[in-house]
């Protein structure tokens, strides 16, 4: 029986019930009707983003029945990368007077080229526990389907003269969480800077620059700490970095505040986040007091060493002079004990190569990331996480250390191309660079072989036994 004929015979109030039993309402209703068992919402934080701007997407699944199984998905559009962020959130919400279970899932979309971009709607397929009408009529089979409408986006190119590195954000705030106003010469004081960026991720955000105190102080910067969250449907990054400032001499020390240029996507203009300059009143260090150094007190050697007069007295009886045989015997005993200890240590050292690596070294080797983790990072994470994983695998520091220790020119070139595509407007496609990176590191990094030898160039402590 068709829907029109069903309406004429039973009336409009029962049409919704008939659609629910046939499983049609879930597929045809993008909005939440009063009788829907499951429906989807998809929220995008920016419909006209810039190229390489982080776009937050929140997909919400509402369902009224108890789910036995289900699959919620969102396909990546052409010309953009898409990755799932964080864990699903389970809530309960009332819609149109009905109580729904709610699942929120977040995604991060990064357009890789300017122009129109069509974001496919999220989709859900699942099975719910059977209800009264399913058991009575034997229909429906508990299947649930829901689809959100497609979302068209218009991606804008980088504006001419935009600050570099290119950093499109909704907002950027810098502040001091620790900023002393006094110090002592030769002693370190700690300065803590916090940056909060709306619309950025760790992979996209550049490193906070180091403080420059000039010749008046030394500055030591610690690695930054990151915290990635969502503010509504917009990704938010909090970055914290600590600096240790050691003034060289007393006086007044002025440390210029940080400057970080970025592009305001809301107002479509270049901005610069600024911190005020730090002024430190530097006092005399505790270790550099002006009290005079006391001169050493003269020692009377004749009083300090009683009996020395008798030992040097020419007229003394030689038979009454102390004899040194006891001291000589003690020295010989200590020398023999030292030789025995050295021989035991040498024998223990010869046994170590046969037993393998010491136990303390094995956990460090086992803690290195593996190839599976590297492949996962290349599929879902940013370039910074990939570089960190490669550095941990090769036990080197940063991108420069990875490039210096890789033996495969193709792998070095892939990393260089990915870095260029990420920050330079003429660097090419980020998606193509990421694919080239996966191909180059498909079987893991190829490190340079370091020749090792047991021969140290020194003569052996003991000749080999015959």
List the helices and strands and how they pair.
Elements: H1 3-10, H2 15-22, H3 25-28, E1 38-44, E2 55-63, E3 67-73, E4 80-95, E5 98-111, E6 115-119, E7 123-128, H4 132-137, E8 143-147, E9 151-155, E10 168-169, E11 171-178, E12 182-184, E13 189-198, E14 217-221, E15 225-231, E16 234-247, E17 251-255, E18 259-264, E19 269-274, E20 278-283, H5 301-304, H6 308-312, H7 325-355, H8 361-366, H9 371-380, H10 383-394, H11 398-405, H12 409-423, H13 430-440
Parallel strand pairs: 10-18, 12-20
Antiparallel strand pairs: 1-2, 2-5, 3-7, 4-5, 6-9, 7-8, 11-13, 13-16, 14-16, 15-16, 17-20, 18-19
Helix pairs in contact: 9-10, 10-11, 12-13
Q: Major sheet, described briefly?
A: 5 strands, antiparallel
Fraction in beta strands = 25-35%
Secondary structure: helix percent? 25-40%
Q: What is the overall number of helices?
A: 13
Dominant shape: extended
Q: What is the structural class?
A: alpha+beta
How many distinct beta strands? 20
Radius of gyration: 37 Å
Low-confidence stretches: 1-30, 135-139, 288-321, 353-366
Summarize model confidence as the mean pLDDT. 75
End-to-end distance: 104 Å
Commentary on this structure:
This protein is an alpha+beta fold. The protein has 13 helices and 20 strands. It has helices at residues 3-10, 15-22, 25-28, 132-137, 301-304, 308-312, 325-355, 361-366, 371-380, 383-394, 398-405, 409-423, 430-440; strands at 38-44, 55-63, 67-73, 80-95, 98-111, 115-119, 123-128, 143-147, 151-155, 168-169, 171-178, 182-184, 189-198, 217-221, 225-231, 234-247, 251-255, 259-264, 269-274, 278-283. Strands 11, 13, 14, 15 and 16 form a five-stranded antiparallel β-sheet that branches. A four-stranded antiparallel β-sheet has the order 1-2-5-4, with no helix packed on it. Strand 18 (259-264) and strand 19 form a beta hairpin. Helix 9 runs antiparallel to helix 10, helix 10 crosses helix 11 (398-405) and helix 12 (409-423) runs antiparallel to helix 13. The radius of gyration is 37 Å and the shape is extended. The chain starts with a helix and ends in a 26-residue tail after the last helix.
